Amino acid sequence: MDRQEKMFKYYEEEHQFRTAIGVLRDLALKTGLEETYKWNFPTYTINGKNVLAICKFKQHFGIWFFNGAVLSDFDQVLENAQVGKTQAMRHWKFKSQEDVDPKKVTSYMLEAIDNQRKGIEHKTSKKSTSGKVDIPELLNKALTETDGAQNAFEGLSNYKKRNTSNISLRQNGTVPSCPV
Description:
Strand 1 (34-38) and strand 2 form a beta hairpin. Mean pLDDT is 87; it is low at 168-172. The protein has two domains: 3-118, Alpha-Beta Complex (Aspartate Aminotransferase, domain 1); 126-180, no CATH class.
C-alpha cells in the first residue's frame, strides 16, 4: 500500500474522532504544508522538514509539533510528547471536536511553519555515551562464571552494556543469556 492509500485509509477509517481529525487536516492543508505519511501518521512538511503530524488514539486526538518546544504556547496547551524521551516534540491533545478552536490551531500551525522557515529549532542535547556502566551484582557474577561472557560484554558499546545492565535480572531467579 503506498503513502496516498495509507493516508486515505487513516482519514476514512471508522473512528470516534474521524470528523475531528478531518478538521485538523483541513486546517493543516490551508497553511500550504505538504502532506505525507510517516510513522503511521499523516505528517505535514515544508521543504522536506517535518512540521506537524495529526494523530488519533482511543481517548484523544491531536497534533504533534515536531519543534513544539520553541513555540510560544501562549495558551499553555502543549505537552511534552514523551517526557524523558523527546526534547523538542510537543503534543496538543483534544478530547472532542468542540475543543478545536480553528483560529488558535491555525495560529500554532503558522508559528511552527514560520519557525521552520527561519531555521528556529530546539537544540537537542545528546546523552553521554561514555563513562562507566554500573553492572548489577548478579550480572557481574554471571559474566565471571560463564566462559567468554566477560570478553563478549566488554566488546559491546556502552549503550548495549547499559541496556543489558538494566534488564531485570531477578525475573524468575534466573540470569538471562548474554545478548551476543
